Amino acid sequence: MISFVILIIVLIILFKSDGFSTLLQVDLNQIRKMSNGNLFLILLIMLGIMVVQNLFTIIPLILVISVNISLFGFVNGYLWSWVSSVIGGILAFLMARYWFQDLLLKHLNPKYQKWTKVENKGFLFVFLGRVFPFAPTSLINIAAGVSAVPLRPFIIGTITGNMIFFFAISLIVKGLWSVQLENNVLLILGAVIVLLVLILWRIRSKRIKRTRGETSEFGG
User: Fold this and answer.
1) Residue among 212, 167, 208 at smallest CA distance from 190
2) pTM (predicted TM-score)
């Protein structure tokens, strides 16, 4: 709890600082000016912005991806948006798991606690939440963190879900939905991503069924 209080104090100080407030506006020219062309510093700044987005969702995701693509190009911008979002999601998940889970479950009405027991559907819950963002990113991270979703399915669901959703947003940012690309490269890449997700989901489903079968045999 002491670490949580320290974090809150640090965040309050950061939010009140002029430099941090400027960064939260995700101004492309200001980021270039503050980084002075240092690639590592630019990557670090954009990572920090994505972490904030995963914690509080006060920054439009499409804006962050747009700036990344402007800074690094389409492919590298998409990849860094994806990688940094996974890092930010994991940090938000761990914060919720170790700071809020016990507190929430302790005060939550028992009849509402069943929604937290979704460990067998953790991947699907996170994946669908990423691909179909009906809820803010931070809410998905916190909901998964305070529930019984294990870290591994959360990470896999975040990696695969954000891979697809960020790719779609990146295409929108570049205005490529209506452009006939040579050899349909993007369509092929999209199909590969979907196929990869289906394979991962199939493997996980078989693993869960196998585990349940072994448990039943052991119990019998």
Assistant:
1) 167
2) 0.73
